[in-house]
Specification:
Helix content: 25-40%
Radius of gyration: 25 Å
Largest sheet: 7 strands, mixed
Number of strands: 31
Number of helices: 14
Shape: globular
Distance between the termini: 80 Å
Oligomer: single chain
Strand content: 15-25%
Length: about 575
């Protein structure tokens, strides 16, 4: 009997090992800031196509074939931004996401842009629901819109069209997904559309939701948030976040979040990139417009109900073809003389999914004629835009506005200028890409002191772009007050009229701008001090249509230039 004891113990050990559950791999794929770009794009006329939901579907097919159930999430701003999407108020995007099998989407600030169902982007009568278009899309979606920090002012509860979080199962593992919206949403969308909503503390909302999800059996917690960041170096060591800007929402949030609360964070909103471990959390933010996807491999120990390892793949550009010896179809990153070869993901070829293409066929046909309309505008060269610096396109558009509306000063927010204006013949699609939002021309009469205050507010940084301007020259120090919270900074050094004469603090100036700057972008407290009869908003047509007429009235062809009307002292970063 004694001789049999070691053998019995050996068999018991084998049985115990066999009963011990093996680690499970759960793959999560993230996109963000699609902005209606459900069709493929080209960097130039000669460049290969990239992006588009039919091709992303091809990537998902490969991953699902290799790894089983794949969780697919989006970090917000799904709809607004292309003629193909806006014409149908986001309907094609919902149908596309349904076909791709998305599991959840965060509520982004631009989800609210369409306002009521129909042509009005804000409610003009009591019968119109300012959330009508979003509610319609949420009802049609086979996935939930998530935001744990979004509540109704009247009830204090999550709106009926949204959820705080959800649990999905992948390969036998329960994964909790928490959504978050940027607390700045009221200042970065049409504020009247979200007047009945609160956007609260995302950290507190996450801690509460994560605790409840763990109690409900979730072994992993993933946050999808329309709160992003910016990191300069995403191609080397993800353990080193030193290239990431610390004064960004994602970084502040992850720093404040108690360690161990979540396992992964998929960011959005800033149209930049992250692929780093921040405060121990795998953090990913792919490029916008369907250009890239983010892929995360979580190793889960079923016996401990916890994530034991996370691996972040390099951010993956969505291409049917890539330049040989690379993973990109971006001509600017192609080696000299490189030819295009079929894209392979994990050893398998990637191709568009025909059934997804078929979903969009009718939508694209309906807008093709309008997209290709020749506007009679000609450009001698490309007009580039910029977010943190004066740009040739910003100068052009504000000059055209100021002249057309006979104003003393003109302002456009850099974030409202969404694309460069190409060289040559300008089509309606080009102008729509530049100005996709249905903001409206506005004339506001301001004192010189109020004009100065506008520039003080909008030059504080913290992720907010500068005001492109005509009729003024101003200088700010980008590094000034860097140790202070954004709201306490004063970076403006000087402001004069275009001819160098000082602003008269008491004089009144006729300012051409857009309604968004009157109701959002952090300027609302200032604008509330302006008498109502000094604010005139023209709701008869979007600013895009006015800009088309204003540009057509200028001598052709239009030639890019920068007038040095915005000077940056001690610039931080690239400033693009």
């Amino acid at each position: 009997m004694k001789r049999l004891l070691p053998f019995v113990l050996f068999l018991a050990a084998i049985a115990a090992h066999a009963a011990d559950p093996q680690p499970v791999h759960v793959f999560v794929v993230g996109t963000t800031d699609l902005h209606g770009s459900y069709d493929s794009h080209h960097e130039s006329k000669t460049a290969p196509a990239y992006g588009g939901l039919p091709l992303i579907a091809g990537y998902l097919n490969v991953l699902r074939a290799n790894h089983g159930r794949v969780i697919v999430v989006d970090s917000g701003d799904l709809f607004q931004g292309t003629l193909e999407s806006n014409f149908f108020e986001g309907e094609p995007v919902v149908k596309g996401y349904n076909a791709l099998g998305y599991d959840a989407a965060a509520v982004g600030n631009h989800e609210f842009d369409y306002g009521p169902v129909g042509p009005d982007s804000i409610a003009r009568t009591a019968k119109e629901d300012p959330l009508g278009a979003l509610k319609k899309n949420a009802k049609a979606a086979k996935f939930p819109f998530l935001s744990a920090n979004l509540t109704e002012k009247a009830t204090g509860k999550t709106p009926s069209w949204a959820k705080r979080d959800t649990i999905v199962e992948a390969n036998g593992v329960k994964v909790g997904i928490i959504g978050l919206s940027t607390p700045e949403t009221p200042s970065v969308t049409t504020s009247s559309n979200v007047a009945a909503l609160n956007f609260g503390d995302p950290v507190a909302a996450t801690v509460t939701a994560a605790k409840e999800l763990r109690a409900a059996g979730a072994s992993a917690i993933v946050v999808i948030a329309h709160m992003g960041g910016r990191c300069k170096n995403i191609e080397t060591n993800p353990e080193d976040p030193s290239s990431c800007e610390t004064d960004q929402e994602a970084m502040r949030y992850l720093k404040a979040l108690p360690k161990g609360t979540i396992d992964a964070y998929f960011a959005g909103h800033t149209h930049s990139n992250i692929r780093h471990y921040i405060n121990g959390v795998a953090t990913l933010q792919p490029s916008p417009f369907g250009r890239e996807i983010a892929i995360l491999d979580m190793t889960v120990d079923p016996s401990q109900h916890k994530v034991t390892k996370t691996e972040m793949a390099p951010l993956t550009m969505v291409c049917a073809q890539v330049y040989e010896h690379t993973e990109t179809c971006d001509p600017k990153k192609a080696p000299a003389g490189a030819t295009l070869v079929p894209k392979k993901l994990e050893g398998k070829s990637v191709a568009e999914v025909a059934a997804v293409n078929e979903i969009f066929k009718t939508y694209l046909e309906q807008v093709a004629v309008k997209k290709n309309e020749d506007l009679g505008i000609r450009t001698a060269d490309r007009f580039k835009r910029a977010y943190y610096r004066e740009s040739p396109l910003g100068d052009l558009l504000t000059d055209a506005m100021r002249t057309y509306l006979k104003a003393d000063v003109a302002f456009l927010n850099s974030g409202g200028i969404r694309a460069d204006l190409p060289a040559g013949t300008i089509l309606y699609s080009h102008m729509f890409d530049v100005s996709p939002f249905d903001n409206f021309p506005t004339i506001v009469t301001l004192t010189g002191a109020q004009l100065k205050r506008m520039l003080e507010i909008t030059s504080i940084g913290g992720g907010r772009g500068i005001l492109q301007t005509s009729g003024l020259r101003y200088t700010f120090d980008e590094s000034r007050d860097a140790d202070k919270p954004a709201a306490q900074r004063n970076r403006l050094l000087s402001v004069t009229l275009a001819d160098g004469k000082p602003l008269d603090p008491e004089a009144l100036y006729r300012v051409a701008t857009v309604d968004f700057l009157v109701t959002g972008e952090g300027l609302e407290p200032l604008m509330k001090t302006i008498p109502a009869d000094r604010i005139k908003i023209d709701y008869s047509r979007p600013i895009r249509e006015l800009l088309i007429d204003a540009l057509k009235a200028l001598p052709q062809p239009l030639t890019p230039r920068v007038d040095r009307r915005v000077t940056v002292i001690n610039p931080v970063g690239t400033g693009d």
